[in-house]
Amino acid sequence: MKGFFSLLLLFCLTAASYGQHRQCGSMEALDQMLRDNPAIATTRQDIETQTARFISLHPTGISSRSTITIPVVVHVVYSTSAQNISDAQIQSQIDILNADYSRSNVNWSSTPAVFQPVSGSTGIQFCLAKRDPEGNATTGIVRTQTSATIFSTSNSVKYTAQGGDDAWPAASYLNLWVCNLGNALLGYGQFPGGASETDGVVINYTAFGSMGTALAPYDKGRTATHEIGHWMNLYHIWGNTSGDCSGTDYVDDTPPQYSENFGCPAFPHVSCTNAPNGDMFMNFMDYTDDACMTMFTAGQALRVQSLFVTGGARASIASSAGCVPPASASGACGTPAALTSGTVASPTDTIQWSAVSGATSYILEYKPSAAAQWANATASTPAKYLTGLVPGTTYQYHVSAVCPTGSSAYSAIRSFTTEGTATGLTDAGVQIEYTIYPNPTHGKFQLMIAAADRVEQVSVRISDVLGNIVHEEAFTHINGLYSYQIDMTGVATGIYNVSISDGIHTEVRKVMVQ
Questions:
Q1: Do the beta carbons of residue 193 and residue 232 sit within 8 Å?
Q2: CB atoms within 10 A of CB 125
Q3: Rounded distance between C-alpha atoms, residue 252 and residue 261, angstroms
Q4: List 28, 48, 134, 227, catalytic entry
Q5: Is there a catalytic annotation at residue 227?
Q6: Which pLDDT tens digit goes with each residue over 115-144?
Q7: Whether the model pTM is above 0.85
Q8: Nearest to 296 by CA among 243, 215, 207, 230
């Protein structure tokens, strides 16, 4: 549905009673969050602006983007033995999330044929965290016994001091709290932009996973699918203005809808002006029973993907090491130390570190300090010579050792600054700087564009030494720092000219494809 009404007006209309109708508390929680801290409204507006910009640049998504796996920590907060759900029940929920968010759920085929073409995979997967914030091994499950018998959208379950359990760092983990929620509430999720100490999703222990304490009709794990949708900035499909067809979920490929749907409606269920196909009641962001939910749309997937790119509200979690187990205790692989950089002569630098006993290789990650995504290089010795660096630019780097028993945690992040002056184009007084990394590349590289003020369009044309164009792309409405992936996979190895133009000036860089 198109439109852009104020986020402050959105409110979650609750259903009648648990056992009869689904009840979500996410919009109630968002409303309370905005009342408690009105400044969050500006943050939310900024997130929507970034989302709209991403969609305008990538209306069909980014085909070359790799799957993002999100580390999950499940906080089981219980006052009775029944509420202390099993590891198997928790894993069943993770399996459901992975299926639902990749459009591989077994009931997807029951999606009405008219809606199947617009269904989409988000490119998101989930794992129970294998590494905790201190770098130690973990199961990704934290169990906390409490004297509190019931919780609500007040967020008390998210604080140890209030009978719950403190969140793990939201920049690196998705926090899922499982507890006894009152007032017939199935769950609620925090939209992006709120406080990190409350960031995450809360699910009733009777609506989590597909076994154990999960009760029909909410025993297929779709409550977590729905609430994590809110955590990923998805709104209810009817737009939360129930009864007048004016609501919006900020997604173009979902039909307008009069209000929420309950149970399992017969197709088609027509409302507003959405005949002949009617409501998309099988969407994960409606209120139907678990067994009747089957899909996200491609438009919803785009909103989700916008969070995890450079500049997105949840970009940091895309590079989290939470899904990577630390080395085993027996013959553990030590973490590299004593990191140093040599005399930096742009565009090169040599990084060195202390050797780790038993290490067979090392992984060096490096990036311009203002960028969100890391480039990586492999070394067989405790040193690596980097080329293709940008003059006058500060880089961050850290190193992990690889042993037969596994990989170590990454070292502390260090930095160096290349010599020289950063070059760029000046467009009517606007300074524009460009960075290409990694360079050399194996086919994919990041083009980072930094503009001190708004630039309407930057065009990129890549050609071989004979002048044959192998890639063209344009980026619009740049204001600030953005990073774009350029995919040259499949081109011949060699040196290519990267011509970058803002419409007034043109600058040529070289990139080597290995």
A1: no
A2: 16
A3: 20
A4: 227
A5: yes
A6: 999 999 999 999 999 999 988 889 999 999
A7: no
A8: 230
